Model the fold of this input.
Amino acid sequence: MPRDLEKKKLARKLEYARNKEIERERSRIWYQSNKERHRTTCRNWSRNNKDIEREKQKQWLLKNPEKAKELRKKAYEKLKIWLSNKPKSFFLIKNAASNAKYRAGKNKRTPKWVNNVELKKMYILANQITKTTGILHEVDHIVPLHGKFVSGLHVPWNLRIITKTENARKNNRPVDIL
Done:
């Protein structure tokens, strides 16, 4: 760093230290007149420095566990209020839309030549296992239909029957990644 630049930075720091209140007021005024610009700059910086932001957040959470707990509690209360104000039809529509999207994706990934009887047998077998054991079982796609890196087909050899908890734990990952 050139000497002139170092001297200028040092002079700015000293000036700020001597006139803290004036500088703070100047910053407040600038912020008030440039709110949107400031937000955009901060948003862009956060997008470009996600790792740094996450690390800062982790450090803050470690230093302030009580405050973090309090904030989570407030957020949960806000969510409960927001959800309580929604009509029941909101949840039905949202769930129906999600199910329709899943079915459409499944239909897209079912080849025309696949034997649908074999597919139905897997779902019937899963229901029978659930009834006999009393533990919820689901038909799982070994290679997910909507995978992050690879997408599988809705064919009998890509299906297996597992418990609902195991399927939830697997989430949207292929079996060999687990």
